[in-house]
Specification:
InterPro entries: Csm4. One of its GO terms (biological process) is defense response to virus. GO terms for molecular function: RNA binding. With 317 residues, this protein is α+β, with helices and mostly antiparallel strands. It is built from six helices and 15 strands. A four-stranded antiparallel beta sheet has the order 2-8-1-9. A four-stranded antiparallel beta sheet has the order 13-10-15-14. Helix 1 crosses helix 2. The longest helix is centred in the first third of the chain and has 16 residues. The two termini are 31 Å apart.
Protein backbone atom coordinates (compact mmCIF):
# COMPACT_ATOMS: atom_id res chain seq x y z
CA UNK A 1 0.00 0.00 0.00
CA UNK A 2 1.21 3.49 -0.85
CA UNK A 3 0.31 6.36 1.48
CA UNK A 4 -0.82 9.32 -0.63
CA UNK A 5 -1.67 12.88 0.36
CA UNK A 6 -4.60 14.45 -1.48
CA UNK A 7 -4.79 18.23 -1.07
CA UNK A 8 -8.32 19.57 -1.46
CA UNK A 9 -9.40 23.22 -1.82
CA UNK A 10 -12.88 23.80 -0.43
CA UNK A 11 -15.29 25.83 -2.56
CA UNK A 12 -18.44 25.69 -0.41
CA UNK A 13 -19.59 24.90 3.16
CA UNK A 14 -19.90 21.28 4.22
CA UNK A 15 -23.12 19.60 5.29
CA UNK A 16 -21.18 16.58 6.55
CA UNK A 17 -17.74 16.70 8.22
CA UNK A 18 -14.93 15.24 6.07
CA UNK A 19 -14.87 11.73 7.59
CA UNK A 20 -12.77 8.93 6.13
CA UNK A 21 -15.47 6.24 6.21
CA UNK A 22 -18.05 8.54 4.61
CA UNK A 23 -15.59 9.64 1.92
CA UNK A 24 -14.70 6.00 1.19
CA UNK A 25 -18.40 5.24 0.62
CA UNK A 26 -18.65 8.10 -1.88
CA UNK A 27 -15.49 6.92 -3.62
CA UNK A 28 -17.07 3.47 -4.08
CA UNK A 29 -20.14 5.18 -5.53
CA UNK A 30 -17.87 7.20 -7.84
CA UNK A 31 -16.14 4.00 -9.02
CA UNK A 32 -19.50 2.50 -9.94
CA UNK A 33 -20.59 5.66 -11.79
CA UNK A 34 -17.29 6.18 -13.66
CA UNK A 35 -15.84 2.67 -14.08
CA UNK A 36 -18.86 0.38 -13.74
CA UNK A 37 -20.31 -2.13 -11.28
CA UNK A 38 -17.91 -4.89 -12.35
CA UNK A 39 -14.84 -2.76 -11.52
CA UNK A 40 -16.26 -1.94 -8.10
CA UNK A 41 -16.87 -5.63 -7.38
CA UNK A 42 -13.29 -6.40 -8.42
CA UNK A 43 -11.89 -3.72 -6.13
CA UNK A 44 -13.99 -4.90 -3.18
CA UNK A 45 -12.83 -8.52 -3.57
CA UNK A 46 -11.14 -9.37 -0.28
CA UNK A 47 -12.21 -6.10 1.37
CA UNK A 48 -13.67 -7.79 4.45
CA UNK A 49 -10.75 -10.24 4.63
CA UNK A 50 -8.10 -7.64 5.45
CA UNK A 51 -7.23 -6.78 1.83
CA UNK A 52 -8.69 -3.30 1.10
CA UNK A 53 -7.94 -1.52 -2.16
CA UNK A 54 -8.11 1.87 -0.44
CA UNK A 55 -8.20 3.26 3.10
CA UNK A 56 -9.13 6.94 3.49
CA UNK A 57 -8.51 9.37 6.36
CA UNK A 58 -10.63 12.24 7.61
CA UNK A 59 -9.93 15.69 6.19
CA UNK A 60 -7.54 17.82 8.25
CA UNK A 61 -6.31 21.41 7.81
CA UNK A 62 -3.31 21.28 5.51
CA UNK A 63 -0.08 20.72 7.44
CA UNK A 64 -1.70 19.36 10.60
CA UNK A 65 -2.95 16.08 12.12
CA UNK A 66 -5.47 15.44 14.92
CA UNK A 67 -4.07 15.28 18.45
CA UNK A 68 -3.93 11.69 19.77
CA UNK A 69 -6.61 10.67 22.28
CA UNK A 70 -5.17 9.81 25.70
CA UNK A 71 -6.50 10.16 29.27
CA UNK A 72 -6.10 13.52 31.00
CA UNK A 73 -3.52 12.04 33.39
CA UNK A 74 -1.19 11.41 30.44
CA UNK A 75 -1.56 14.84 28.86
CA UNK A 76 1.57 16.94 28.57
CA UNK A 77 -0.25 19.91 30.09
CA UNK A 78 -1.85 18.12 33.05
CA UNK A 79 -2.57 21.39 34.85
CA UNK A 80 -4.57 21.65 38.06
CA UNK A 81 -5.93 25.07 37.05
CA UNK A 82 -9.28 24.45 35.25
CA UNK A 83 -8.72 27.43 32.93
CA UNK A 84 -5.37 26.06 31.77
CA UNK A 85 -6.85 22.58 31.35
CA UNK A 86 -9.59 24.07 29.18
CA UNK A 87 -6.98 25.96 27.13
CA UNK A 88 -4.95 22.76 26.67
CA UNK A 89 -8.07 20.86 25.62
CA UNK A 90 -8.61 23.38 22.81
CA UNK A 91 -5.22 22.55 21.31
CA UNK A 92 -6.29 19.75 19.01
CA UNK A 93 -3.84 19.85 16.10
CA UNK A 94 -0.28 18.50 15.71
CA UNK A 95 2.03 20.12 13.10
CA UNK A 96 3.52 17.61 10.64
CA UNK A 97 7.11 18.38 11.62
CA UNK A 98 6.44 17.25 15.22
CA UNK A 99 5.45 13.65 14.44
CA UNK A 100 8.96 12.34 15.14
CA UNK A 101 8.53 13.29 18.82
CA UNK A 102 7.63 10.66 21.47
CA UNK A 103 4.01 10.81 22.61
CA UNK A 104 4.48 13.09 25.63
CA UNK A 105 6.40 15.72 23.64
CA UNK A 106 4.03 15.29 20.71
CA UNK A 107 1.07 16.21 22.91
CA UNK A 108 2.97 19.20 24.21
CA UNK A 109 3.38 20.53 20.66
CA UNK A 110 -0.39 20.67 19.98
CA UNK A 111 -1.79 23.97 18.72
CA UNK A 112 -5.25 25.53 18.69
CA UNK A 113 -7.65 26.38 15.87
CA UNK A 114 -6.53 30.02 16.02
CA UNK A 115 -2.91 29.03 15.38
CA UNK A 116 -3.95 26.75 12.50
CA UNK A 117 -6.58 28.85 10.75
CA UNK A 118 -5.74 32.37 11.96
CA UNK A 119 -7.39 34.66 14.52
CA UNK A 120 -10.63 35.25 12.60
CA UNK A 121 -10.67 32.27 10.25
CA UNK A 122 -11.59 29.22 12.32
CA UNK A 123 -14.39 27.09 10.82
CA UNK A 124 -17.77 27.60 12.44
CA UNK A 125 -20.88 25.46 12.52
CA UNK A 126 -24.06 27.48 12.07
CA UNK A 127 -27.56 27.09 10.69
CA UNK A 128 -28.59 28.34 7.26
CA UNK A 129 -32.19 29.15 6.33
CA UNK A 130 -33.90 27.48 3.38
CA UNK A 131 -37.36 27.50 1.87
CA UNK A 132 -39.34 26.17 -1.07
CA UNK A 133 -41.79 28.39 -2.88
CA UNK A 134 -45.30 27.14 -3.63
CA UNK A 135 -45.71 27.89 -7.33
CA UNK A 136 -49.49 28.29 -6.92
CA UNK A 137 -49.21 31.03 -4.31
CA UNK A 138 -45.74 32.37 -5.15
CA UNK A 139 -44.71 32.24 -1.50
CA UNK A 140 -43.85 29.86 1.35
CA UNK A 141 -46.56 28.20 3.45
CA UNK A 142 -47.22 25.24 5.68
CA UNK A 143 -45.98 21.63 5.43
CA UNK A 144 -43.40 21.06 2.71
CA UNK A 145 -43.36 24.79 1.93
CA UNK A 146 -42.53 25.85 5.51
CA UNK A 147 -39.11 27.56 5.91
CA UNK A 148 -36.53 25.39 7.67
CA UNK A 149 -32.92 25.49 8.85
CA UNK A 150 -29.99 23.14 8.24
CA UNK A 151 -26.65 23.00 10.03
CA UNK A 152 -23.58 23.72 7.89
CA UNK A 153 -19.82 23.96 8.52
CA UNK A 154 -18.35 27.17 7.13
CA UNK A 155 -14.64 27.39 6.25
CA UNK A 156 -12.71 30.32 4.88
CA UNK A 157 -12.86 30.48 1.05
CA UNK A 158 -10.30 28.17 -0.59
CA UNK A 159 -9.37 26.47 2.70
CA UNK A 160 -6.87 23.68 1.97
CA UNK A 161 -7.50 20.27 3.53
CA UNK A 162 -5.35 17.13 3.57
CA UNK A 163 -6.84 13.66 3.03
CA UNK A 164 -4.49 10.68 3.50
CA UNK A 165 -5.14 7.64 1.31
CA UNK A 166 -3.48 4.22 1.65
CA UNK A 167 -3.89 2.93 -1.91
CA UNK A 168 -3.06 -0.42 -3.51
CA UNK A 169 -1.69 0.96 -6.80
CA UNK A 170 -1.61 -2.51 -8.36
CA UNK A 171 -5.42 -2.43 -8.29
CA UNK A 172 -6.08 1.25 -9.01
CA UNK A 173 -3.59 3.86 -10.28
CA UNK A 174 -3.33 7.08 -8.33
CA UNK A 175 -4.32 9.06 -11.44
CA UNK A 176 -7.72 7.34 -11.33
CA UNK A 177 -8.03 8.12 -7.62
CA UNK A 178 -7.42 11.77 -8.53
CA UNK A 179 -10.30 11.60 -11.03
CA UNK A 180 -12.60 9.92 -8.50
CA UNK A 181 -11.93 12.68 -5.97
CA UNK A 182 -12.53 15.29 -8.65
CA UNK A 183 -15.87 13.62 -9.45
CA UNK A 184 -16.94 13.92 -5.80
CA UNK A 185 -15.67 17.49 -5.59
CA UNK A 186 -17.73 18.50 -8.61
CA UNK A 187 -20.87 16.61 -7.52
CA UNK A 188 -20.53 17.59 -3.85
CA UNK A 189 -19.56 15.64 -0.75
CA UNK A 190 -22.01 14.54 1.94
CA UNK A 191 -25.41 15.93 2.86
CA UNK A 192 -27.16 18.52 0.69
CA UNK A 193 -24.71 18.26 -2.21
CA UNK A 194 -27.68 18.93 -4.49
CA UNK A 195 -28.03 22.47 -3.09
CA UNK A 196 -24.31 23.26 -3.41
CA UNK A 197 -22.66 21.95 -0.25
CA UNK A 198 -19.45 19.92 -0.20
CA UNK A 199 -17.86 21.27 -3.40
CA UNK A 200 -14.06 21.17 -3.65
CA UNK A 201 -11.19 21.05 -6.12
CA UNK A 202 -8.36 18.53 -5.99
CA UNK A 203 -5.03 20.38 -6.07
CA UNK A 204 -2.80 17.31 -6.18
CA UNK A 205 -2.40 13.69 -5.13
CA UNK A 206 1.21 12.98 -4.16
CA UNK A 207 3.14 10.27 -2.34
CA UNK A 208 3.25 11.22 1.31
CA UNK A 209 6.64 11.98 2.86
CA UNK A 210 5.16 11.75 6.36
CA UNK A 211 6.01 8.06 7.04
CA UNK A 212 9.71 8.86 6.53
CA UNK A 213 9.61 11.26 9.48
CA UNK A 214 7.98 9.11 12.15
CA UNK A 215 9.94 8.00 15.22
CA UNK A 216 12.42 5.22 14.26
CA UNK A 217 11.30 3.12 17.25
CA UNK A 218 7.57 3.70 16.90
CA UNK A 219 5.62 1.21 19.01
CA UNK A 220 1.96 2.34 18.81
CA UNK A 221 -0.44 3.31 16.03
CA UNK A 222 -2.11 6.73 15.73
CA UNK A 223 -5.33 6.51 13.67
CA UNK A 224 -6.37 9.11 11.10
CA UNK A 225 -9.98 7.94 10.62
CA UNK A 226 -12.70 6.11 12.56
CA UNK A 227 -11.99 2.38 12.67
CA UNK A 228 -13.17 -1.00 13.94
CA UNK A 229 -10.11 -2.48 15.72
CA UNK A 230 -11.73 -5.66 17.07
CA UNK A 231 -9.81 -8.85 16.39
CA UNK A 232 -6.54 -7.00 15.74
CA UNK A 233 -3.66 -7.94 18.01
CA UNK A 234 -3.60 -4.92 20.34
CA UNK A 235 -2.72 -4.51 24.02
CA UNK A 236 -5.95 -3.09 25.48
CA UNK A 237 -4.19 -1.85 28.63
CA UNK A 238 -1.95 0.46 26.55
CA UNK A 239 -4.52 1.51 23.92
CA UNK A 240 -6.74 4.59 24.16
CA UNK A 241 -9.78 5.59 22.12
CA UNK A 242 -13.15 7.31 22.24
CA UNK A 243 -16.26 5.47 21.07
CA UNK A 244 -18.06 6.88 18.05
CA UNK A 245 -21.55 5.76 16.99
CA UNK A 246 -21.99 6.08 13.22
CA UNK A 247 -25.54 6.35 11.92
CA UNK A 248 -24.93 5.82 8.21
CA UNK A 249 -27.26 6.52 5.30
CA UNK A 250 -27.37 5.38 1.71
CA UNK A 251 -26.62 7.76 -1.13
CA UNK A 252 -27.81 7.78 -4.72
CA UNK A 253 -31.20 6.27 -5.52
CA UNK A 254 -31.29 4.30 -2.24
CA UNK A 255 -31.38 7.63 -0.40
CA UNK A 256 -34.94 7.96 -1.73
CA UNK A 257 -35.96 4.40 -0.83
CA UNK A 258 -38.32 3.34 1.96
CA UNK A 259 -35.36 2.67 4.26
CA UNK A 260 -32.36 4.89 3.46
CA UNK A 261 -30.69 4.15 6.82
CA UNK A 262 -27.84 1.73 7.46
CA UNK A 263 -27.27 -0.21 10.66
CA UNK A 264 -25.65 1.89 13.44
CA UNK A 265 -21.98 1.07 14.04
CA UNK A 266 -19.71 1.45 17.06
CA UNK A 267 -16.27 2.65 15.98
CA UNK A 268 -13.11 4.01 17.60
CA UNK A 269 -12.99 7.73 16.80
CA UNK A 270 -10.16 9.39 14.87
CA UNK A 271 -7.00 10.04 16.89
CA UNK A 272 -7.06 6.75 18.79
CA UNK A 273 -3.87 5.10 20.05
CA UNK A 274 -3.52 1.31 19.61
CA UNK A 275 -0.53 -0.60 20.95
CA UNK A 276 0.34 -3.81 19.03
CA UNK A 277 1.40 -6.68 21.29
CA UNK A 278 4.63 -7.14 19.31
CA UNK A 279 5.57 -3.55 20.24
CA UNK A 280 6.24 -2.58 16.60
CA UNK A 281 4.20 -0.21 14.42
CA UNK A 282 4.99 -0.80 10.76
CA UNK A 283 1.78 -1.11 8.69
CA UNK A 284 -0.04 1.64 6.77
CA UNK A 285 -3.52 0.81 8.11
CA UNK A 286 -5.34 -1.13 10.82
CA UNK A 287 -8.94 -2.23 11.40
CA UNK A 288 -11.51 -4.30 9.56
CA UNK A 289 -13.76 -4.12 6.54
CA UNK A 290 -17.36 -4.24 7.79
CA UNK A 291 -20.30 -5.92 6.11
CA UNK A 292 -23.99 -6.57 6.96
CA UNK A 293 -24.42 -2.82 7.38
CA UNK A 294 -27.54 -2.45 5.22
CA UNK A 295 -30.86 -4.25 4.92
CA UNK A 296 -31.51 -2.66 1.51
CA UNK A 297 -28.13 -3.45 -0.09
CA UNK A 298 -26.71 -6.68 1.32
CA UNK A 299 -23.41 -6.31 -0.58
CA UNK A 300 -22.68 -2.91 1.00
CA UNK A 301 -19.48 -2.57 3.02
CA UNK A 302 -18.29 0.08 5.46
CA UNK A 303 -14.74 1.28 5.97
CA UNK A 304 -13.68 0.03 9.40
CA UNK A 305 -10.03 0.52 8.41
CA UNK A 306 -8.00 3.62 9.21
CA UNK A 307 -4.69 4.93 7.84
CA UNK A 308 -2.17 5.06 10.68
CA UNK A 309 1.15 6.62 11.61
CA UNK A 310 3.58 5.08 14.07
CA UNK A 311 4.59 7.05 17.16
CA UNK A 312 6.72 6.25 20.20
CA UNK A 313 4.90 5.82 23.51
CA UNK A 314 7.19 5.70 26.50
CA UNK A 315 7.27 2.47 28.53
CA UNK A 316 6.22 4.31 31.69
CA UNK A 317 2.92 5.40 30.06
Amino acid sequence: MTLLRAILRLHSPLGTPLAGDTLFGQLCHAVREMLGEEKLETLLDGYTAGNPWLVVSDGFPSGYLPRPTVPAALQANNEEDPAKRKEAKGKRWIPHHQIVQPLHQLLGSAVSDKEVYGEQSSPIQAVAFHNTLNRLTGTTGAGEFAPYTQSQIFYQPDQHMDVWCALDEDRLPRAILFQLLEYIGNAGYGRDASIGLGKFAVEQVEEAALPKHVHPNANVYWTLAPCAPQGNDFDAARSYWQVLTRFGRHGGTLALSANPFKQPLLLAATGAIFAPTNNTAQTRFIGNGLTKVSLMQTAAVHQGYAPVLGIRMEASV
